[in-house]
Amino acid sequence: MAKSTARQPLSIGIDIGGTGTKFGIVDRDGNVLFSDEISTKGHAEVGTFIDELYNALSPLLENAGGVGRMKGIGVGAPNGNFYTGTVEYAPNLPWKGVIPLAKLIESKFKLPVALTNDANAAAIGEMMYGAAKGMKDFIMITLGTGVGSGIVANGKLIYGHDGFAGELGHTIIMPDGRLHKGTGKKGSLESYASATGVTFTAIEMLENSQEPSLLREVPKENLDSKAVYEAAIKGDKLALSIFEFTGKILGLALANAIMFSSPEAIVLFGGLTKAGDLILKPTREHMEANLIQVFQNKVKILVSHLKASDAAILGASALVWDMK
Amino acid sequence: MAKSTARQPLSIGIDIGGTGTKFGIVDRDGNVLFSDEISTKGHAEVGTFIDELYNALSPLLENAGGVGRMKGIGVGAPNGNFYTGTVEYAPNLPWKGVIPLAKLIESKFKLPVALTNDANAAAIGEMMYGAAKGMKDFIMITLGTGVGSGIVANGKLIYGHDGFAGELGHTIIMPDGRLHKGTGKKGSLESYASATGVTFTAIEMLENSQEPSLLREVPKENLDSKAVYEAAIKGDKLALSIFEFTGKILGLALANAIMFSSPEAIVLFGGLTKAGDLILKPTREHMEANLIQVFQNKVKILVSHLKASDAAILGASALVWDMK
């Protein structure tokens, strides 16, 4: 198989998240041939980040037949701008202000670079290879360290007039609600329905109730969405109510998004979806409860079935095939 | 002028609102040649509504050169569906369930009919002839008896997978907030930022405070958004705080919409915009306050400058020019 595709051009997909950065080398059929991961968080300076990225990608490039076989690099990054190739004021990245990321990567790798919002990249991946294949109207929502979104309408990704559309995670769901330290805003979706948000909810609920819970035995530094999940599958009531609360907020946000662009489906992706029905059931219930009649019982909630890290890498790499 | 356009085909635009229905005969350049209005509210049955519409339009059609000169009829209606020509479960219309409105009008007038959401129609009108001329990404919001919206992205109206996109008025802005009697949902934008919503806010504020106000002298049956406006321009503090509160909710909703689709502008239209800066100033302030940095200070709030009733009639009529 390696032989028959030897002359096919390949593309590099890079998915920059708040915690880690995943990257892979992808063929036109959506096979991730090689992939790896480095830390994002660990780099206070974007320069050292790009150096490590280069060093980590180099052996993969050699394995894949050398840099000459690469058509280009596609990048998904929080607050990434398709039009300008910059990452601007990303609350979840260590680099502040306006970062000319596409340019920096282009100089280092000597390859053309296309960049967009990480969730937009994931949406393209789902549309080309995943759960949204063939759909013309859907919303992709990534539930990771933060909450990202990519909106597809009329078969096209919505970039907005300035390239920044799709920041559903920052929409305000609970006015005067929980403070988001990265943005300074109160009550945004991301401050509740991200992995970080779930941890905060756990801390709040443990503090505000006397209810016994397995979570009370978890050391504070280990109290995260994974710990909540593990307690919940053991039937821990407080852990279950953490997911119920998270689903209530997420369901409301989904209902609002549906009444806006009326998608055929919402595709969820990211760490929190691993909780399965623990989070999906309350999400679906509260979504339906907040929809006016005309939208009820017709929008699918789908969970990405692409391999954990692949959707975003695939989506980012897909940007390359559209390059002129 | 009438002579030179004598052979030009014309179109009929009909804008059905919760209270009244406006209609006009329009040429390709967007001139509303003849127009009139009937009551919507007064017709419990859609059949008698269509009869009155026919009777009211007939003299206009004669003035315009007869029905033979009409290329077709475009209709904007709440919960109107572009794909099916139906109006479905419209909370603000007297006719419940699924109404095959396009078909009913077609049978009566013997002309082809295209139908969409009233706010979508207004958006098309603004894009072709109004404040959004030349824009590829904008959101139209109609602030009338209810709150409607039309979303344009990548130069195209978003209908969604089922034709119902753009129901921003029903998105929940204040969870567990004010009950919307038409939908049974709590805290929707429409329950605050419509003419009806402003009246409710006035009643609530008068009941919950002892503050002297000109509005206390207004008979309850005359207490509406117009009365609030008239008190506010006289400097009445309570009336001003009603607009401030309305602008707070509307501004939050606009911020959320912006973070979703990142439009170049939001075009406002309808009765409430007549209050000018009384409502626009707090709206703008709260919009900016809720936006994350990347969206701040770049989205224009525009007020439709089309003649009061024209935007929706023009937009509805514009559907006709796209007919095959």
Taking the alpha carbons of the first and last residues of chain A, their distance comes to 28 Å
Shape of chain A: globular
How confident overall, as mean pLDDT of chain A?
A: 93
Spatial strand sequence of the major β-sheet of chain A: 3-2-1-4-7
Q: Give the CATH level 1 class of the largest domain in chain A.
A: Alpha Beta
The greatest interface between two protein chains, and residues involved on each side, is: A-B, 48 and 48 residues
CATH level-3 fold name of the largest domain in chain A: Nucleotidyltransferase, domain 5
- Stretches of chain A where pLDDT falls below 50 for ≥5 residues? none
| Largest sheet, strands/sense/barrel of chain A | 5 strands, mixed
Whole-angstrom Rg of chain A: 20 Å
How many distinct helices of chain A?
Answer: 9
General description of the model:
2 copies of one chain form a homodimer. With 324 residues, the first copy, chain A, is an alpha/beta fold. Chain A folds into 2 domains: 10-125 and 309-321, ATPase, nucleotide binding domain (Nucleotidyltransferase, domain 5); 135-303, ATPase, nucleotide binding domain (Nucleotidyltransferase, domain 5). Chain A is built from 9 helices and 12 strands. A 5-stranded mixed beta sheet of chain A has the order 3-2-1-4-7. Chain A has a 5-stranded mixed beta sheet with strand order 10-9-8-11-12, with helices on both faces. In chain A, helix 8 links the parallel strand 11 (265-269) and strand 12. The first copy, chain A, is globular. The interface between A and B is large, with 48 and 48 residues.
